[in-house]
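Batch job 17 of 40 flagged for manual review because the log was empty.
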Amino acid sequence: MNKKFLFGVLIVLVVVVLGFTLGDKEEQSVSSVTIGMVTFPGYAPLYLAEEKGLWGSDLEVELIRIESIGDLRAALKTGDVDMYAATYDIFEAAEGAEPSGVAFLAVDESHGGDGVVVRDGINSLADLRGKTVGAEPGFPPYFILQYLLNKEGMTLDDVSFRDVTSQDAGNAFVAGALDVAATYEPYLSESASKVAGAKILVSSADTPKLIVDFLFASETLVENNPEVLREIAQGWFSAVEYWKANPEESYEIMGKAFDVSAAEMQDFKTGVSWLDLEENKILFDESYDQNAYKTFDLVGDILEANGGTSIRMNAQDHLTDAIIRSF
């Protein structure tokens, strides 16, 4: 047999074998997924899914608390987590390199839990100009404040802004040191009730589809294992449906995950909505006026105007409707 011919056959065989091997490696099933998140009860149904075994039968899901968005981003990049939870503004507020992650599932929406409390005499968004305003950067109330200013053609430069924690913002407002406080419950309502004439000018109940938490998965998982993301989404939807059918038991389980009573968890729920499949279908539908893609770009505009990001990201690069469309 011709040696050159034999050598050629061997090369072809090696390439074919390697191709099958690499293909198998790329498409191999994923048996475990790690989800990172800050300590926030809005993610409670994830713990309900864990407790009631609502994930896919062959999928092991680990939930871990990481209290810094920078650490969450680093963990996704290194593979220490496979996905993490974040709102539009928290994900997009980035400096330096563009963060990894593609949002495939919307899990919760603030519905009155975040807002802006104002002193007597402030009756409109235009009245915020020149006022002393306190908020905590990196938290939803801070972005709601920027959103409200943007609606009036203003930025943070048009107010006297003070960087304070959400709790301190409420206390400073009550003490008279602030005209306006952007904060969350219970500080939001408490601040309004303790100052004569004060009121909640706007809450997240008035800004639908703006403060939404998504699960942002690694690009590798999105590209190579969409079936795993579908199992995560199905587990979430199953947990939401289980809560609807069994609220008392569910609040008890979820409360334990956050070291609060079932009553406290139920009270927290009044300020947040847990999103089901139909709500996800609407949010990921680009024909809907307040769809996720449009809001992602709006958030980027507002952050850029206020110096909150050095990177403009493309919504199409960091959102996918493929998983929701698969249901």
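Reviewer: the log was empty due to a logging misconfiguration, but the result itself is present. The longest strand covers residues 102-110. Unflagging and moving on to job 18.
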